[in-house]
Structures are given as C-alpha cells and as structure tokens.
C-alpha cells in the first residue's frame, strides 16, 4: 500500500537514501508444518485466506519498503509464480519484488545471508524479515532510528525489532525464545541468550563484564521476536566471514555480542504498540490467526487491506463473511465469534462454526462442528463431522461423521473416509498416485527434499491406517513422532520442544518450569508407539547431502545401502561445493588460509577422503590457468601467477603429500585434454614453489599409478598419463644431468650468474647454475632455475607435448633475446622460450587441438610478460 | 492507610526491631580497644552523634517502640551506660532490651546464628537493622513497613529489604591502605512490583567468576527484570516471624546478608524450594479477611498471580479452551482465585538522587558519611558563653565544619571541612583539613592533619604531619612525625593485652555485626 505509507518519516528516509530495501527469507528451513508443506512452500500457506507471503508483502509495503528481494529455495517456481501473480507485481504498487533462488545447499538463514552477500544485491541498510511475518509495525520508524544511530556509531550494525509482551503471551513461542539483556537507556542489546522450551533451559548466563560498563541493565524475557531486523550492509559480509553462523539470533547475534574481536553492537527496537509476529509453527499459526481476527493487526484486518484482496464484511463479535453475497449460510447454522468465512462457501443446516477460518468455495455439511479449525479453500466437510483445533488443507474431503480432534494436520487433496476417527495430532497427507514422482519431485523440496524417502517410510507404516482414516480414503497417516529418534537433532527441533509449537497441544504434561533443583520431567506420553518419523535418509539426490550447516539430518534410519548411495551423493555434492568455494576464493581473493579453513570444513561436513580435496584443489588451480595458446612466456607467466598465489593451498588442506599432488596433477591434466600441455609447466612451478621436491617427482615417477596402471588401455586418459609420465621422466633426467654437471662446475657459479644467456645458447649451463644456487640461496635464483627447467625438461618431449620448446628453436633465437633485454638469465630465458612456443606450436597441433590458435604474438607483450615475471620473482 | 495507624496504636508489638551491633572489624583501628576500654562501633560518632542514634531515631519516627539491641558482652557496660543516659532522654518512647553475646573481635560467628539464638525473644514480625545504617532523609522506615504490611497481607510476601544506590566515591580520594573499597553486589529485581529476586553471593562469584547466572524460572515469572550492580544492601530487613522458623531450618547459614537473604529470594520462583519451605514461610492460616477486602479495592492491582504451582492437565485444558474461544486480548487470563502466597521478598530501592544514604561500616564510608553531614550544616560559633570562650577568635573555622562541646580551639588554628569531637584541644597554628577528629583528642600546636580520622583520646605531637591516616583510640603521635596513608595503632598494648586488639588484617567477614553468640540472656 504505498500510497498510504507516504508519511513524513518516510520522506526523511527517501531524502537521505533513495530506496529502502528489504530481504525476505521465504524459506522456513524446518519442517514444522509437515505434511501441509508437501508440495508447497510454507510461505504460500494461507492464513486468514491470504498467503503468508502476501501478509509479509503487505506488512513491508505498510512500512514504505520499495524494493524487496525474496530469497527462496524450495518450490522456488511456485514462489516466483505467486509473486508474479500477486497484486504487488503490478507497476502501480511502486514495489519492486525480485525473487532470488538460492542454491539447494542453503540450509539455514545464515546460508541465505551468505547468498545475499554473494549476489551483492544490498546497497545500503536493509530490512530483513522472514516470509511468514504479519506485522503492522512502522518499520520505517525503526529504519530511521537505526540510521540515526549509525550516524554516530558505525558499529551499531543491526537493530532487532522486538515486541513487548508477557512471558506467556499466546503468540510468543514457547519452544524457542530468548533472553535479552538491554541497556535501559540506549536499548543496546548487551547479551542474548537463546532459550529452549523443552528440555527447559534452566538457567541463563551473562558475562559479568557487562555490569562493569552498564551498572544497571534490563533482563527481558518478555519479548516476542518479530524477526524483523534492520541490518547494515556489513551484516551479510559478517555472515560470509563466519561461515558457521546459521541462525540469525542464536549464532549471529550471540556471536557478535560475545565476540571480543568484532566490536560491533546490536540494538533492539522495542515495539510497545503495534503488532508483529511470525508464523513459525502451527501453534503460532493458530495464535496469529486469532490475533488477526481479533484485529490486533489493524490496519491489516480481513475487512480492510486484506492481503489476498478479498472483501469481507466485519460483523459484531469479529465475524467476517465474504462480501460478495456468495456465502450461503443455512438458517439454522451457528456462526460463533472470531470466525472468517471465505466467498462461495456453503454452511449447511445445524452446522456450527466457532473461532475458525474457512477458505473459499468450501462446503460444510449439515450438523458439522468446527471449532478452532482452519480450513483451506475448496474443502468439503461432511455431515456431522467434527473438526477441532486442526488445520485442514485445500481440496480435502472429510467424510460424513468423521472426527478430527485437536492438533491434526491434513494436507491438500486428502480424502478422509466417513466416520473415520483420527487420533489427536494426526498428520495425514495424500497418497502418491504414481510412485516415482507423485509427492513433489525431490529436487524441489522445502523441508521436503527428503520427502520421497520420508514418504516411503510413511507408506511402509500403514497397517492400521485404514481404521484411522476410514475406508474410502486416499490418505497416508504419518507416524507420530516419538521422542526417541531425535537425539541427534537440534534440540529446538526435538520432539518435545516441537510439541510446544504445535497447534492444540497444551503440553501440560511436560515439565516446563525449572524447579530449581533436580526434578525429572514426569513423562506421560502415551499417544504413540510409532517410530522412525524422521527416517529421512538422504537418498534421493545430491541436494539432500548435508552442507556444513544442515541441522536437520537424521542418520538414524540409514541402511548401509543407502549409506553408500548417499556417500556417493555426498562426494558429488562435495565436489561442487569445493568448486564453488574455490571459485569464490579466487574471485574474491580470499587469503590462502581462509580458503583452506573453508575446505577443511567442507571436507569434514561431507566426510570425504583427503585425496578428493586435493584433487579438487589441484584441479581448480589448473583450470584456473587461462590458456594462452601460442605464447609460452605469457602462458608461463600466467601459470606462475596462479601457482604462486594458490599453490600453497595444496599443502594446507589438512595434509602434505607432494607425491599425491603430482599424481593428482597428472591425472587431472591427462583427463582434461586441452590442459595436458600445462602439466610440465605447472609441475615446474610447483617445484619452484617448493611444494614438490625432486624426490617427490622421482617417487611419483616410480609409482605404478603414474604409469597409468589400472587405467583402461587405449583410453585417452592413459594416453595423457603416459605423456605426462614421459615429461616426468625427462625432468628427472634433467635433474640427474644437472647434478653431474653441478658437481663438475661449481666454480663457475658466480660468473655464470651475470650473463648466462650469452654464454648459453643451449639451455643447460644456466639451468645447471641456477639449480646449484637454488639449493643454497634465494627464491630469486630458484625462480630462474625453474623457468629454465621447464623448457629444458620439455625439450625432448616437444614432439609429443605442445607446451614445450625445442632446443633447436632455442638456439635459433638468442640474438633476438639479447637484443631485447637480457641482463638476467631468467629474463632472456623466459623470452626465448616464449618466442619458441610459437614455433613449437605447429608440430604440436595434432595432439592438442585446443592450442591451434597460433597467432604470432608481438614481441612487446611477451617481453612485458617476461619482465613482469622477472620483477615478481625478484620481489620474492 | 487506615490500618497502619490502627495497628500502630492498638497492636503495640506489631514489630520488634532487632538492632545488631558488632565489633566493626572494618573500622579498625577506630574500633580497637582504648587501653582496656572497648570502643563499641555503635557508639562511634558520625557528625558527633553516636552512629546508633541514626537507626534508633529512624525507628522512633516510624513508631516502632520495641528494640532488641544485641551487642558483644564486652561492650555491655559502655552500651548500657549509653542507653541509660542518652537514649532514654533523646528517645523516650523506645523500649530497649539490651542483650549481649560472648564474642571476641577476631572470632566472629554469623548474624544468622545470633538471630537464631534470640529467636525466642522475637515473637512478632521483626525488623533487622544494623547499628551503622544512616538512613536517607527522604526515606522513612514507615515506607518500608507499609510496603511490607500491604504485601504480606495481600499477596503473601515474606520480607522486605532495602537497598540504596551507592554514591560514587571518587577513587582518587580513597586510600587502599584503608581496606578495599566496598564493591556493590549485583542484584536482580523487579522494579514494577518492587521485588528482590536474586542477590549475587560470594559463592556465586566463586562458582562462576566470568558469568552471571540466572534461573529461567525467575525470568518466566518476572520476565522484565533489572540487573544492577549500583546498589548496596542497607541490611534493613522487615521480616515475617515465620522467616525465623525457616532460618532455624537452615542451620548452616551464617550471614544474614550474604547467605540468608539470597536464599530467601529463591522460594518465590523455584518450585521445589517453595514446596519445601512454603509451609514454613507462609503457614496456612484462616485469616482471609483483608485479602478479600483488598481485592475489592479500586487500588488493587492484579499482581503476579501466576505461581509455580502446576495446574492439573484438566484445569489447564479448561483454561485453554476458555482462552481460545473467547479471548479478545492476547494476554492469557490470570486465574484470579488462586491466591497462593507469593513468598515474595519486597524491595525498596533508594536512589542516590533522592538523598544520601550509606552504612558506616568501613573507613571509606565512615569518612564519607561525616563529610556528608558536614556539607549539610553550617558552622556557627557556639552561642553559650562557656563554649564560646573556648574558641579563640583568631582561629579560622570554615563554615562546613563541626565542633563538639567543650572543645578548645587555640589561636590561629585552622579547621576546614572537618568534624571535631567533644573535649578536644586544638593547638595553636594547627591545621586540620577534611578530618574527623573524635572526642578527647589533643592536637598540639603546629600539627598538620589532612584527610585523617583520629580515634578518641588521640594525641598528636607538635608539628606532626599526618595525611590520610587513621589512629587507634589513645594513640600518641610523636612530635614532628609525619605519616601518609597509614593506620596508626598502639602496638605496645599488644604485649599485655590480648592479641585481638592487633588489627592484623581485616577480618573480611563483612558483616560488622558478625558475632559470637554465647550470651547471657
């Protein structure tokens, strides 16, 4: 509603900043609404007959936000379509909504934030909300306060919006909440302590040092976390730097506040009047629905500003009936307070509807009783059916006389047979028609990516289902979760804690208050004996492989077969992760250490052997080298640049094994045809960087793997391996001859250093000198020796591999070399070899088709390259 | 309020005040013996009045008449002498019952023990007072008592404590030789209802020096609390008689302030403790009259009625049902009928902005208190000719000074910002700045004193130069001596006296009234 929101405050903001941006995290990253969210993202669930996403948009529009990025992961297509079709995408709204689909590996809000960072979409302070927000808070006011604070205090990076309430407010989550320690005057948040409902957090701690600076602080446990954060631009980058941050509160806020290094501060904006709440679980779904119906969210109420665009008439007792006269109410039906009835809905005789929300085009049979029920569109409730405290999806058919007691969740399109009696907290979804891809394809899963396997599990457990759901049903009864199978889950997602978040569950049998000493919870859970509810093994696809932050994986039900499958998947997954991570590292110029840490984490998360990491790193480095066909010097300079920058990473991934490195390099080059020629030079560079020693090369050369044993004969790979091996052989030959000569000519070292190029029409003398020096002296020498090495070793293999020079051409060019600039040997050598490359390219053509572009390079760039490489080498 | 008036007049023994007077170990050497004579802490003058007068007058003003004064046996004669002569004249309405206990200065047993011992003499609700609390002018004891009366009656609170905001002592003026500066104890309280919820104890600090721990049960009951380290305990507690019963249960507790009160805060929110001690602290009685009356009062605030008693599932269900169908408000209804005693510990917080308050229980605050009273008064020459004649007209006495009776000030002596006791002699040319000079001191001519506290009967030799020193009663400063930041004690007495006079380290038992019992009843 942009026209409405043009207040004075907003103009202020508009003056200093063009656009107010908002980011919506549309994914829930958990599965509390299952099975309602099978085949549908949570943000598209309706609440009071408008989708959560629409409520969120409405809330943001009310706050004067102009640009919204919607970060979606699961069912992104549906989200995109919903955005496209919504009224907000009309140009007249002045709202610009950009859906952004994140990688499947986004498992937490933290991942999403890192994604935001990589997309670089944020230009200034922005509003971060979740896709399930219902709020009438003037967020623009929060933004104004935030910006004002930022003007004086650059370290105030975030303002959290919290709503004052009571500790037992119905909208307040009992399962997860937090204790805020605030400075009463500045509302700076000095400490944040997450609190779990069950097992009840018994005590919170706060550092004593807080009191040193703030002698009087407020400890607040009465805040509803609205999940509205005004963040400065630094926030996504902090997430990027601290890749272990998953949750925004528990990890980020807690981390920032407890960090001794960051020196950043987080503030709270305490909303006194106004409404803001998240629909984070089914319990809050109930609570927020009631809040909307009781008009706490005014001006966002069904009869005005309904986000879905529906028109409702507000009657006494907070009853809302669709305005278009399409609702047919029987003369004898009873409509209680706090009820919303969508258009084209029919309520038959003697039906009673109480504190419920009914969607559009529903039919409520005669004598049906609905109490605290939430019925989505196109649902039929049979005669005499009773629905209490439950959520019923769209297109559901409830048979006559069936009973849905409190806490049930019935997914879309389910049919429940007549006179079926569901148990409390039953969860029911529709059977899949065609086995392979009925229940939403796995790649699209919200929380549902594992739905295939989960559903299989569910299907396996249907023996007694018929008596529960009746005979003519198409439904699957989901097993009741049991407390036993979630030891490994995040405690927030554990069964008992989830009970605090589900609709209709009073959890009165749970020990929630802290007794003060050891009182064990008197557990009287008798409802179910089912097990394996969380049998969501990760078989379906690579997408389900755990990233570093996936919290909701439950390996308990994995069989060994599944295990192999999943580990294969994990490896593929890992490879792509590493590739991405390195890509980022390369692109953004991370330090080697940072990149290494990231790799280590990835490796641990995916549990792959070290060799895979090495392969990935070496591969990435080789692939990183831009091919410069026809210019050996430039090529070499490129290689030197990359290897010097990233080579050390090879040894920092968690283990040093140069032999393996060479082997990996060999296999990688051999497998990637066009990069085969790089092998010699990369190897030479590695040698030069002391990443690989002579002995290592020898060891590699002697190993059976280097000769390509075990590789299918006749394949291109073997061919490549052999070539590489041959190069290695030459190199070793080179070492040996050097050693011999070295012992002979030690005395010549110094003089040779001065004008080696002139003295050395052939490559050997300088090579030898450099070799001898490098052993005792600086990198500078070793650099020269190395650059000499490559052509020297490559010389004999020139006919085979294209990347090398021939001795004949080397000798043919010395005049030119000298004429250019040849004060140092490496300069001349570089240059010589660079020039030669051109000529050497021609014979190499047949083997390396990619290297055919042999335009003669001008002398100038070659020289420049040579010089630059000199300089850099000397700098070292 | 009506009923408090009536209660004062009709029920004479509504409260008994228990005034604890100890040795004042933190005030050593001022409280060390003078010769064989003890120097009871209670009788140390603050602004030339024995410090016990401050709490006594506070008591008198609020109409509490019965005082149980507990002091060590060795102080008995001095104390009873004081009570006979001074108290009976200045506080005629007080009925003081002096009780003593055997204790030596360095073997102290806690205040809890003391209280337990005298519990038979306390038959009504009681007020525990230290002898050294100088109440702020803006806060009357009646305010505390009224809070106590209201809350015990209508929601079953069990005690009321009083904390004051410590005024900032400028660190520069304080001398470390005088003992460590008292540090404030962090407390957690609910400001709206005035409830003390948690007192950080030395034990807590020992257990976790880095972090401060709070019970979630506290926070769920009082979700909006304050944690503050800017307050100090006045050691004034108004308690129900039943608290004594609980105290006798907890035999291992030693200090009221450091152990018992922190413990007493806990049953209000910890369920198991409530179950265990609830009946002791708040026995079931059939006295329902006033709570019912109060409920009908328009001033009645539906307070913290949610208790830790666990509702049965059915009850909960019923409440839930009720809530979900009808509530127009998002706040859950409180069940009004469940009036279970809250066992609260009320708290009166006194901010420094509304008047200075302090306990004179260490040298720093003792000096601060004296200075505070100096700043309140303006000195005028004594009006009666006898005293007038003792002050030489050439003496310079600044307006913010105070000079006791029968003190002679000789010519050209200069006194600034100082309290001079009775029967002192200030010699010629003596210069006294920011000092507290107790009774019967002799300061010879030309002596220079700055920031000192001189115990009674101290003699300062000519041209002695003392800065920030404290002297034991009867100490003699040799002529020409100069000392800085020292505690000057009479060492030669140690030879023929008991070693208890030797100060030898502050006995860190911070309760200066910490005591040994063993008393003669």
How are the SSEs ordered, and which strands pair?
The complex is a heterodimer of chains A (876) and B (521).
Chain A (H helix, E strand, L loop, with lengths): L7 H9 L4 E5 L20 E2 L2 E2 H11 L4 E6 L3 H10 L10 E6 L7 H11 L6 E5 L2 E3 L3 H14 L3 E9 L11 E7 L5 E9 L6 E5 L1 H5 L2 E5 L2 E9 L2 H8 L6 H11 L6 E7 L4 E3 L3 H12 L18 E4 L3 E4 L5 E2 L4 E2 L3 E3 L4 E2 L4 E3 L2 E2 L4 E2 L4 E3 L2 E2 L4 E2 L4 E3 L2 E2 L4 E2 L4 E2 L4 E2 L4 E2 L10 E4 L20 H9 L5 H5 L5 E4 L16 H5 L60 H29 L3 H15 L3 H15 L7 H19 L7 H14 L6 H11 L5 H9 L13 H29 L4 H6 L1 H4 L4 H13 L2 H19 L9 H6 L1 H7 L4 H20 L14 H17 L1
Parallel strand pairs in A: 1-4, 1-6, 4-5, 8-14, 17-20, 18-21, 19-22, 20-23, 21-24, 22-25, 23-26, 24-27, 25-28, 26-29, 27-30, 28-31, 29-32, 30-33, 32-34
Antiparallel strand pairs in A: 2-3, 6-13, 7-15, 8-13, 9-10, 9-12, 10-14, 16-17, 34-35
Helix pairs in contact in A: 1-5, 4-7, 13-14, 13-15, 14-16, 15-16, 15-17, 16-18, 16-27, 16-28, 17-18, 17-19, 17-20, 18-24, 19-20, 20-23, 20-24, 23-24, 24-27, 24-28, 26-27, 27-28
Chain B lengths: L1 H8 L5 E6 L24 E2 L2 E2 L2 H9 L4 E7 L3 H15 L4 E7 L9 H7 L7 E6 L2 E2 L6 H15 L3 E7 L21 E4 L4 E5 L2 H6 L3 E5 H6 L2 E5 L2 E9 L1 H9 L6 H9 L6 H11 L7 H7 L17 H14 L18 E6 L7 E2 L3 H14 L8 H6 L5 E2 L4 E2 L4 E2 L4 E3 L2 E2 L4 E2 L4 E3 L2 E2 L4 E2 L4 E3 L2 E2 L4 E2 L4 E3 L2 E2 L4 E2 L4 E3 L2 E2 L4 H4 L25
Parallel strand pairs in B: 1-4, 1-6, 4-5, 8-14, 16-19, 17-20, 18-21, 19-22, 20-23, 21-24, 22-25, 23-26, 24-27, 25-28, 26-29, 27-30, 28-31, 29-32
Antiparallel strand pairs in B: 2-3, 6-13, 7-15, 8-13, 9-10, 9-12
Structural class of chain A: alpha/beta
| N-to-C span of chain A | 62 Å
End-to-end distance of chain B? 38 Å
* Biggest sheet details of chain B: 7 strands, mixed
Q: What is the global morphology of chain A?
A: globular
Identify the strand order in the major beta sheet of chain A: 5-4-1-6-13-8-14-10-9-12
C-alpha Rg of chain B (nearest Å) = 26 Å
The strand order across the widest sheet of chain B is 5-4-1-6-13-8-14
The largest pleated sheet of chain A is described as: 10 strands, mixed
Number of domains of chain B: 2
């Amino acid at each position: 509603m942009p026209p409405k929101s043009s207040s004075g405050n907003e103009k202020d903001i508009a003056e200093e900043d063009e656009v107010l941006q908002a980011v919506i995290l549309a994914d829930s990253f958990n599965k509390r609404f299952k099975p309602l969210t099978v085949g549908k993202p949570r943000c598209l669930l309706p609440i009071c007959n408008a989708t959560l996403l629409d409520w969120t948009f409405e809330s943001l529009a009310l706050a004067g936000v102009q640009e919204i990025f919607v970060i979606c992961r699961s069912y992104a297509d549906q989200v995109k379509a919903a955005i496209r079709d919504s009224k907000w995408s009309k140009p007249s709204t002045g709202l610009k909504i950009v859906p952004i689909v994140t990688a499947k590996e986004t498992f937490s809000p933290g991942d999403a934030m890192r994604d935001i960072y990589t997309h670089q979409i944020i230009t200034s302070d922005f509003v971060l909300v979740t896709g399930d927000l219902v709020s009438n808070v003037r967020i623009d006011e929060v933004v104004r306060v935030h910006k004002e604070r930022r003007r004086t205090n650059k370290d105030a990076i975030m303002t959290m919006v919290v709503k004052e309430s009571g500790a037992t407010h119905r909208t307040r989550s009992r399962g997860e909440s937090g204790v805020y320690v605030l400075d009463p005057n500045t509302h700076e948040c000095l400490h944040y302590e997450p609190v779990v409902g069950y097992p009840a957090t018994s005590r919170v701690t706060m550092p004593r040092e807080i009191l040193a600076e703030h002698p009087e602080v407020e400890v607040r446990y009465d805040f509803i976390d609205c999940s509205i954060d005004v963040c400065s631009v630094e926030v996504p980058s902090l997430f990027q730097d601290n890749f272990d941050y998953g949750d925004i509160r528990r990890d980020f806020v807690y981390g920032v506040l407890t960090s001794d290094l960051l020196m950043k501060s987080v503030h709270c904006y305490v909303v006194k009047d106004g409404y803001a709440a998240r629909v984070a679980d089914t319990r809050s779904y109930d609570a927020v629905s009631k809040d909307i119906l009781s008009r706490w969210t005014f001006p966002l109420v069904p009869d005005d500003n309904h986000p879905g665009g529906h028109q409702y008439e507000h009657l006494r007792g907070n009853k809302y009936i669709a305005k278009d006269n399409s609702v047919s109410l029987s003369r004898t039906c009873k409509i209680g307070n706090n009820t919303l009835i969508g258009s084209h809905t029919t309520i038959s005789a003697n039906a009673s509807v109480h504190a419920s929300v009914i969607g559009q085009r529903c039919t409520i049979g005669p004598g049906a009783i609905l109490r605290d029920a939430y019925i989505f569109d196109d649902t039929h409730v049979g005669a005499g059916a009773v629905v209490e405290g439950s959520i019923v999806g769209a297109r559901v058919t409830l048979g006559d006389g069936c009973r849905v007691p409190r806490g049930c969740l019935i997914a879309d399109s389910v049919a429940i047979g007549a006179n079926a009696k569901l148990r409390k907290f039953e969860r029911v979804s529709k059977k899949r028609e065609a086995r392979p891809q009925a229940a939403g394809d796995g790649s699209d899963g919200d929380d549902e990516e594992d739905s295939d396997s989960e559903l299989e599990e569910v299907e396996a457990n249907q023996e007694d289902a018929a008596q529960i759901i009746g005979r003519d049903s198409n439904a699957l009864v989901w097993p009741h979760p049991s407390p036993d199978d979630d030891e490994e889950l995040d405690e927030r997602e554990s069964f008992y804690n989830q009970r605090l978040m589900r609709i209709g569950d009073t959890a009165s049998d749970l020990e929630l208050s802290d007794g003060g000493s050891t009182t064990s919870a008197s557990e009287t859970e008798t409802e179910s004996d089912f097990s394996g509810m969380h049998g969501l093994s990760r078989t379906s696809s690579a997408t389900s492989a755990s990233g570093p932050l996936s919290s909701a994986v439950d390996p308990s039900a994995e069989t060994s077969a599944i295990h192999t499958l999943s580990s294969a998947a994990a490896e593929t997954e890992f490879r792509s992760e590493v590739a991405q991570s390195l890509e980022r590292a390369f692109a953004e110029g991370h330090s080697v250490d940072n990149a290494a840490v990231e790799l280590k984490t990835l490796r641990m998360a995916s549990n792959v052997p070290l060799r895979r990491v090495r392969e990935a790193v070496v591969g990435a480095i080789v692939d990183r080298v831009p091919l410069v066909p026809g210019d050996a010097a430039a090529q070499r300079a490129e290689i030197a640049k990359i290897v010097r920058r990233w080579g050390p990473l090879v040894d920092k991934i968690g283990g040093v094994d140069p032999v393996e490195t060479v082997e990996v390099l060999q296999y990688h080059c051999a497998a990637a045809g066009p990069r085969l020629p790089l092998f010699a030079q990369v190897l030479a560079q590695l040698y030069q960087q002391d990443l690989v020693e002579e002995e290592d090369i020898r060891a590699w050369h002697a190993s059976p793997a280097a000769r390509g044993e075990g590789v299918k004969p006749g394949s291109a790979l073997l061919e490549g391996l052999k070539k590489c091996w041959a190069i290695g052989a030459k190199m070793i030959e080179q070492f040996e001859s050097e050693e011999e000569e070295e012992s002979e000519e030690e005395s010549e070292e110094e003089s040779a250093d001065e004008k080696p190029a002139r003295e050395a029409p052939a490559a050997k003398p300088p090579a030898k000198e450099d070799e001898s020096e490098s052993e005792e002296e600086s990198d500078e020498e070793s650099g020269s020796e190395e650059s000499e090495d490559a052509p020297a070793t490559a010389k004999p293999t020139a006919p085979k591999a294209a990347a090398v020079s021939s001795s004949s051409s080397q000798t043919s060019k010395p005049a030119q070399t000298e004429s250019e600039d040849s004060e140092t040997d490496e300069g001349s050598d570089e240059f010589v070899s660079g020039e030669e490359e051109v000529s050497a390219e021609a014979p190499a053509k047949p083997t390396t088709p990619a290297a055919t572009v042999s335009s003669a390079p001008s002398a100038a760039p070659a020289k420049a390259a040579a010089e630059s490489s000199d300089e850099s080498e000397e700098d070292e | 309020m009506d009923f408090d008036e009536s209660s004062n007049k009709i029920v004479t023994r509504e409260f008994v005040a228990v005034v604890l007077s100890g040795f004042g170990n933190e005030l050593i050497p001022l409280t060390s013996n003078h010769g064989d004579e003890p120097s009871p802490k209670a009788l140390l003058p603050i602004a030339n009045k024995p410090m016990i007068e401050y709490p006594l007058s506070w008591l008198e003003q609020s109409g509490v008449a019965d005082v149980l004064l507990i002091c060590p046996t060795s102080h008995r004669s001095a104390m009873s002498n004081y009570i006979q002569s001074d108290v009976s004249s200045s506080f005629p309405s007080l009925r003081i019952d002096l009780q003593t206990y055997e204790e030596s200065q360095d073997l102290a047993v806690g205040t809890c023990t003391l209280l337990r011992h005298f519990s038979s003499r306390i038959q009504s609700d009681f007020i525990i007072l230290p002898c050294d609390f100088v109440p702020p002018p803006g806060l009357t004891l009646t305010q505390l008592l009224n809070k106590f009366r209201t809350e015990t009656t209508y929601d079953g609170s069990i005690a009321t404590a009083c904390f004051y905001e410590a005024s900032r002592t400028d660190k520069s003026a304080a001398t470390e030789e005088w003992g460590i500066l008292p540090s404030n104890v962090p407390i957690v309280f609910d400001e709206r209802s005035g409830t003390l919820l948690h007192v950080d104890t030395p034990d807590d600090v020992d257990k976790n020096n880095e972090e401060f721990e709070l019970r979630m049960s506290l926070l769920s009951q009082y979700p909006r609390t304050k944690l503050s380290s800017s307050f100090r305990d006045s050691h004034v507690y108004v308690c129900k008689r039943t608290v004594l019963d609980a105290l006798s249960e907890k035999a291992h507790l030693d200090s009221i302030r450091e152990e018992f009160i922190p413990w007493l805060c806990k049953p209000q929110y910890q369920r198991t403790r409530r179950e265990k001690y609830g009946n002791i602290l708040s026995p079931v009685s059939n006295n329902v009259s006033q709570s019912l009356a109060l409920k009908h009062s328009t001033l009645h605030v539906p307070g913290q009625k949610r208790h830790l008693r666990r509702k049965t599932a059915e009850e909960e269900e019923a409440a839930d049902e009720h809530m979900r169908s009808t509530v127009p408000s998002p706040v859950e209804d409180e069940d009004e009928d469940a009036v279970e005693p809250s066992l609260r510990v009320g708290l009166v917080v006194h901010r420094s902005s509304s008047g200075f308050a302090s306990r004179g229980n260490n040298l720093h605050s003792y000096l601060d208190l004296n200075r505070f009273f100096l700043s309140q008064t303006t000195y005028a020459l004594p009006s009666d000719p006898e005293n007038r004649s003792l002050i030489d007209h050439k003496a310079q006495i600044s307006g913010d000074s105070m000079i006791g009776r029968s003190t002679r000030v000789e010519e050209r002596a200069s006194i600034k910002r100082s309290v001079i006791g009775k029967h002192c002699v200030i010699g010629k040319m003596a210069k006294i700045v920011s000092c507290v000079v107790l009774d019967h001191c002799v300061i010879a001519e030309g002596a220079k004193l700055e920031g000192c506290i001189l115990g009674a009967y101290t003699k300062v030799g000519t041209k002695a130069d003392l800065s920030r020193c404290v002297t034991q009663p009867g100490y003699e400063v040799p002529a020409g001596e100069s000392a800085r930041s020292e505690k000057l004690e009479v060492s030669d007495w140690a030879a023929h006296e008991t070693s208890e006079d030797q100060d030898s380290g502050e006995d860190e038992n911070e309760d200066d009234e910490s005591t040994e019992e063993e008393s003669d009843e």
